[in-house]
Amino acid sequence: MEESEDNISMHADSKGIWNLVNVLGQAVPIEMALRELVQNGFEACQRSRTNFNKSVRVNRDLEGNITITNRGGDFFSLDAAKTNLNTLGNSGNSPNVADNFGIGAKISVLANNHEIRYTSKKENENNGHSFTIGSIRSKDYGLKDLNSSSTFSAKDFPNSFTSASIISEFGNTWDTFNKAVSSKNGLSGWGIANFLTQRYFKTPRQIKLDVAIYNKKGKSKYVPINGALHCMKTTQRYGKFELVGNNIPAGTIAHWCILNEKRTARNKMLTDYFLGFSLKNELLTNLDDSFQSRTMDFTKCGVYSNAHRIVVVFELPESSDFVWHADRSVILSHAPKKSIKRGDFYAAFRKQVPDKIQELQKEEEYEFDFDKIRKEFMKDLNDFYMCSHGALSTSSSCKSGSGNGTTRSSSTSGQKFKFSLNKIPKLIDSNNKDAPIVSFLVDSDSIVVNHESPTFKLRRDKIVNNGNKDYSLISDKEINGAIRAEIYRGAVYSMAEFFMVEGRNYTSEQVEEFLTSDKLDCWGMTSNRAVRVYLGHRLTRIINSLDT
After folding, report:
1. Which sign, positive or negative, has the C-alpha torsion 118, 122, 126, 128?
2. What whole-number distance in Å separates Cα of residue 274 and Cα of residue 353?
3. Where are the domains of the chain?
């Protein structure tokens, strides 16, 4: 629509742009500028038709500033800088603004009181130029130093290249970015290498990405960055399969690996366990979540033990309706624009847990006579609460031995939850140290007891060490099993009581939200005493058998 007296296009003055950049930049971490500039380097190389080898390199310049250089990419002309880089909403040379959303590095850099200095030259030419985007006066952003020229040796630099150095009046930015990505290796560069490895699931073919690693003397070596998938494939055990389930896009691939107990040079950049989603070769992970939250995510995936050694990535097909949020921090469904429902993917994975992961979990499982305990619970619960009150469903009645337990239909959202005293939730043992001591999973109708919880270990120590009996003749498995049984018993009673009191109208999502670890964990002095009584009887039987 053309501009007229009735239709006037929106405009912004320099102050308005200043305010907008700083508001938008508050939500964008400074390290995302590194991702943006690396991505710009990839796209420049993909647009170029040169026959030279193409690469993107991250290092520090002579002033100590982080610098991202693409070699073999298209020439970044002054005209492109004026018309695209200097316009809010455009992304450098890129014709596909939708992919980068036109935000690019300039938002995150400028809002953090930094600037970007570009240097670029054409293939087989000696002369190049440089310019800077940054603060040109009070509350005004733009291009400056446009007339700066540079001379290069065509012999030493035959191919085209563009370098982008992030600069600041407050000191060198190499240190700034190393600290921003929480590197545990000081300022060497490993933190940046790890960040990019866990940012990209795959790097573009035929484009080399590497990061400079510096020793204490300042000498450098370059390590290749091939993305998380490459590292996963170098682990001891890796696999993939098509994920099938409710609300899962056709063609979704679940990648998994079991991390080596001792990391090698090839896969050490996978620094920790995580769950992630890949869209258009970029990764969204839960690495920023707490250990407890991450472990609970794995529990919902059916990984109840040794989660700290597992990585799972759900690769979404590009044909799906998922898109990245503008700041690349969230994956959204295209319509309506809501965050991806992780629980759907976790539930689907739980039904397809690979055999190798199941074998890893069995290494930590404890013996437990569930059938015996279950029969005891069902009798006690039915005697106390009466069977007619147990089936919390508007359409079902509770007949002895016919309860359905907790159930959900194929469409889980808003489904009314059913609880039956005739089929209590099963017990799953966990050794995920960062998970709560006990939790309830609606989808799998399971109570998870975590024997690696600090609280579990404290209870065990009080039982074993504070009594007047020597339990050394009883195996660790049996002691832990007795404690687990009591925690499980308390959780079952707590669930039954909850539904007797609270009523029938909760959805499955609400049940999982309400039945937290605090509500399920009913440990007290009677629990402590019950375990000691059991162990005392067990000890007596062992001693008597030895005497005979």
Report:
1. negative
2. 16
3. 14-226, 232-362, 379-547
Rounded CA separation 176/67 (Å): 12
Q: Quick one: pLDDT band at residue 98, thresholds 50, 70, 90?
A: very low
Other Cβ atoms within 10 Å of 536 Cβ, number: 13
Residue 202's pLDDT is what?
94
Quickly count: other Cβ atoms within 10 Å of residue 169's Cβ: 9
Residue 108 near residue 36 (C-beta atoms within 8 A): yes
Please tell me the number of Cα atoms within 13 Å of 243 on its side-chain side.
27
In sequence order, the 6+-apart residues with CB closer than 8 A to the CB of 468 are none
Tell the burial category of 305 from Cβ atoms under 10 Å away from its Cβ (0-12, 13-18, 19+): buried
pTM: 0.70
Q: Which residue from 47, 22, 33, 1 is spatially nearest to 116, judged by alpha carbons?
A: 33
In the three-class reduction of DSSP (H, G, I as helix; E, B as strand; rest coil), residue 119 is classed as strand
Residues 6 or more apart whose CB falls under 8 angstroms from that of 133 comprise 81, 85, 86, 106, 110, 115, 116, 118, 141, 142, 143, 144
- Rounded to whole angstroms, how far apart are CA atoms 52 and 71? 8
Neighbours of 153 (CB within 10 A): 8
Cβ atoms within 10 Å of 475's Cβ, excluding its own: 13
- Report residue 458 as tokens: 């404290």
Q: What percentage of the chain carries pLDDT values higher than 90?
A: 22
Question: Beta 253-258 vs 310-315: how paired, if at all?
Answer: antiparallel
Q: Which of 33, 59, 207, 29 is nearest to 134 (CA)?
A: 33
Q: Quote the mean pLDDT of the chain.
A: 78
Contact 122, 128 (CB under 8 A): yes
Tell me which residue of 428, 424, 417 sits closest to 401, measured CA to CA: 424
Query: Which residue reads 């009913």 in tokens?
Result: 522
| Residue 507 DSSP label | B
Is the CATH number 3.20.170 carried by domain 232-362? Answer: no
The rounded distance, in Å, linking the Cα atoms of 241 and 252 is: 9
The CATH number, out of the four listed (3.30.565.10, 3.60.15.10, 3.40.50.300, 3.30.1390.10), of the domain defined by the range 14-226: 3.30.565.10
Plot region of 120 (φ>0 → left; ψ -120 to 50 → alpha; else → beta) = beta
- For residue 203, which amino acid is it? T
Q: What is the pLDDT of residues 35-53, one digit of tens each?
A: 989 998 999 899 888 777 8
Quick check: 144 and 134 in contact, CB under 8 A?
yes
Pairing of strands 54-60, 66-71: antiparallel
Name the pLDDT band for 204 (thresholds 50, 70, 90).
very high
Report in angstroms the alpha-carbon separations of 530 from 375, 463, 487: 18, 10, 11
Three-state SS annotation for 10-38: CCCCHHHHHHHHHHHHCCCCCCHHHHHHH
**CA nearest 419: which of 387, 392, 452?**
392
Task: Tell me if 68 sits within 8 A of 58, measured CB to CB.
Answer: yes
If phi > 0 it is left, if psi is from -120 to 50 it is alpha, else beta; for residue 346 that is alpha
